[in-house]
Design brief:
By secondary structure, this protein is an alpha+beta fold. It contains 8 helices and 13 strands. The two termini are 28 Å apart.
Length: 331
């Protein structure tokens, strides 16, 4: 069956609001805490679409495309050029990313998802993207289509909603400025493991200097907790618990009270194939981050974990985390 895919226009916004609201409600039904609905969800969707389709000055390039059949919109796909974080080399430029607020209408013709993905890939390639990333929330049909299009899992977002029940371990403490060099040292080990898992995470030549600046500034930010283990001269690990960003959540969802742990490493995790010391130190840091988030009223959190790091995944799953979202890569 043939499918027509075109760029979205402002005239499509009313129909897209309805379609994206249904998609958000499906996520909410699967996990109402993690995917909490905004009280004004339709207005937030409309606002995001209007900005994406009309604003001349945007911090990154967005592309919205719709599929049509017999004159009716049957689906939508959202993609963008993703800026490379400053600690990574990004030698192939900003990758293209297909975002999770892509949806098909109930009863859409067979092949609609495939047509949307192919169109988004073509549009991103036209902008110069050499690497493509895709995002999907687990339990939806997009997973199989991305797999068939040659995407391999790159990063898992594991979530948990019962935070703080393990308490705050006594073996951890808040980070201070004296801890920054030790954090940078451990972060360099972490980044080397990432690169060995997948060359996508190639470090920028000035990664340590840039990360030092960011850690120093992070100590002044009041919306996060920086936690370490060990003396400053020999830290065994660090973790940063902070608010979730809009990048990972479509506009229909309220991210107030949702946290994320991304900067997180302990020497127990140094071997991706197996935990050292049964992961005792890494688990203590994890529980400390959970307690910090719970103290701030956070009800749900993501932990970001490379798909090729089995020991870290094992530890997180043992702590009650489940994969809620997957980022995949196509070169």
């Amino acid at each position: 069956m043939s499918h027509t895919v075109r760029n979205a226009t402002t005239g499509d916004i009313p129909r897209l609001v309805d379609l994206l609201l249904l998609d958000a409600e499906d996520r909410h039904a699967a996990d109402p805490t993690l995917w909490k609905m905004a009280e004004d969800a339709p207005a937030q969707i409309e606002k995001a679409l209007t900005f994406a389709l009309t604003a001349e000055q945007q911090s990154f390039r967005q592309i919205w495309q719709v599929s049509e059949h017999d004159g009716a919109i049957t689906g939508v796909i959202h993609s963008m050029r993703l800026p490379v974080p400053p600690i990574y080399a990004g030698q192939q430029g900003d990758p293209g990313l297909i975002l999770p607020d892509s949806a098909v209408a109930p009863g859409a013709p067979e092949g609609t998802v495939e047509a949307l993905v192919a169109a988004a890939e073509a549009a991103l390639r036209e902008t110069g993207a050499k690497i493509l990333l895709s995002t999907y929330v687990t339990g939806v049909p997009w997973r199989d289509v991305f797999r068939d299009h040659g995407y391999d899992p790159l990063t898992l977002y594991l979530s948990r909603t019962d935070l703080g029940d393990a308490g705050r371990p006594r073996t951890v403490r808040p980070a201070t400025e004296a801890d920054v060099p030790g954090i940078v040292t451990r972060a360099a080990e972490n980044k080397q493991i990432l690169f060995e898992i997948d060359t996508f995470w190639e470090q920028h030549p000035e990664a340590d200097t840039r990360f030092t600046g960011w850690m120093t500034r992070s100590l002044t930010l009041r919306d996060r907790d920086m936690i370490v283990m060990g003396p400053p001269e020999n830290l065994s690990g660090y973790v940063i618990a902070q608010p979730a960003s809009r990048l990972h959540f479509p506009p229909a969802h309220d991210i107030t009270g949702t946290g994320v742990t991304d900067d997180y490493y302990h020497t127990d995790l140094a071997d991706p194939a197996g935990l050292a010391n049964d992961g005792a130190g890494a688990s203590a840091l994890l529980h400390a981050a959970e307690a910090a988030l719970a103290d701030r009223g956070t009800g749900a959190a993501f932990v970001v974990c490379p798909a090729g790091w089995p020991s870290k995944i094992e530890m997180l799953e043992a702590a009650g985390y489940e994969t809620a979202m997957v980022w995949s890569i196509k070169r």
